[in-house]
Specification:
Elements: E1 3-4, E2 14-19, H1 43-57, E3 66-67, E4 74-76, E5 85-86, E6 89-92, E7 99-103, E8 107-113, E9 119-124, H2 126-131, H3 133-138, E10 145-149, E11 159-161, H4 162-169, E12 179-181, E13 187-190, H5 192-202, E14 207-210, H6 225-228, E15 234-240
Parallel strand pairs: 3-5, 4-6, 10-14
Antiparallel strand pairs: 1-2, 2-15, 6-9, 7-15, 8-9, 8-10, 11-13, 12-13
Length: about 240
Amino acid sequence: MEVIVPNWPAPNRVKAFASTRVEGFSTGVYAGLNLGKHVGDDEQTVQQNREWLCQKSGMPSQPVWLNQTHSTHVASVRKSTALVLDADGAFTETQGVVCSAMTADCLPVLLCNTSGTQVAAVHAGWRGLADGILENAVNKFDGEVMAWLGPAITQKAFEVGQDVYDAFVTRQPEAKQAFVAGAQVDKFQADMFALATLRLNAAGVSKVYSSDLCTYNDEQRFYSYRRDGVTGRQATFIWIEDYAS
């Protein structure tokens, strides 16, 4: 199974990875390890993909899945659940609870404290990022926090309008450095990795690590909504192992 392991100095008890579309049972436009049940793929096949991933990765439990709506809500999860939570982030202090965030161009952000007692997975689309979802997640933590930015669309592929530029720059003027002029008037190329880093730094998180992987440009490994329209979803996961392990 091909996964992306974060390049960050998290405590040993913190386990995390980002899935890819490599292998899996989905076919057609969803070909590979599609984990999204909301995108039109056969639900039984998606469930098969999820169970296969859980088994192959050695997760301690089934992941907590989210109904993501580009909100700023980060759910605090105390135990594993089969319920799909209405949130764009999941936070836990409980060992064995697997937090997840599904993406197909949006930025998945993993967080943990340096003592390894708290973790979170966040789905950061531009709306949630601009509105403060990362700050909401960081506020749940005690102690020093570090972050990892998973695979997402990169600046050259992410053209946005004036509304997106204004949503960030009116809140944080230095965010203008994360935009360059696009090919058309009133269009910009937005750097989600830089925008997230700026927001995290402002929230007191200085240790930010990045995968620097582009979902749009790597069709073999990643689903991309902007590239393909109808497509699957990969996911990013984090959990706390038993302290004795």
